[in-house]
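Action item from last week, closing it out:
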Amino acid sequence: MKMDQAQDHLYLIKLLNRSNVLSLIKNEGPLSRVELSERTGLSRPTISAIVEELLAAKLIREVGKGPSSGGRRPILLEFNATAYYIMGALFEGTTLSSIITDLEGRIVLKDETEIANTVGDKAVEKVIEFLKNLYRKSRLPPKKLLGVGIGVPGIVDLEKETVSLAPSVGWIKNFPIKGALEEALGVPVIIENDVNAVTLGEMWKGVGRNVNKLAVFHVGTGIGAGLVIDGKLYRGYSGAAGEIGHLPIGAGKRNPDEFGIYEKNWACPAMRKFLRENFTDLPEEKIQFPIKTLIELSKTDKRAEDYLEEACVHWAYGIASIICVFNPELVILAGQLIHLGEKEIAKIKEKINSWIPFSPRIEFASLGELAGNIGAALSVLHSEEETIIENII
């Protein structure tokens, strides 16, 4: 038993040493083997062995020689971001989009499609078909796909690797989407709540960088929030933190078993319904972006102006609720809210400031509609931070 524990300990040290060396080259390279030894405190033979493994895995590459300090000029090493690629998908109930990025998060290909009236296993089949076709379009070798991250509607149970309470796609209780995707795609799959994926994207690459406490307010197929505390995503006891679509805000008539009254009234499907009923000549492509279309119509039509103003007030209710409970430094507006104009933002801020004496900064998602895709893609790397090298080597 003691021998096994010792072997496990040595294995962990080896794994962490490789991870530290790769991170150092990635963040501060190009560096020589001597510099790596000096910065990590590892012996030169240990560094040489780690470097050879990383070179064999093509995670690093030699890029010429550095200046000499008296002997031979040292060979410099840099991170090879194009050694492997990651897919970052976002499935919001009716819209499915995905990007392919290198290991630095640079996008090499993106696409999206509409998936309507498809639920349960059929929805998963559509996701699989779309992702496979997108990777074929990239013409990248299959072995270069490192993994897939996907943001999905509903509550994600990371321990059970299932999704619950996503009625728009028929995933009601413990739906095993992760296993189905991994079996079909043949690579590790990381599942994440769609709004949490947006939050991770903005935290790692967007306007939320270096902000310790932030909240994302997202309006799309539903209404949700993402919460970050001390630089880490807060999920809550059962993974349901941020499910603000269930708040009793502007509640109307509801059935005893009906949940999500807030998002039922003020998310995109409700706005599309309003547009179809009141502006029958609108083309469907306009209806698909209801906030953008309502802003255009509000300039000349009182019905649209009044409805949009009421929507802004109700979104302000949701944001104010988050602020009072969570007290974030920054609130990021995401999803379809990125189409709001100065007039609408001013309305929301005016309401919040009149209700709350400690209002934070409120800004748009700087990554726009790709925030969730980028967050989903990078979650593959972050979730496998200590074992990803081992998986490759």
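Closing note: The first strand starts at residue 31 and ends at 32.
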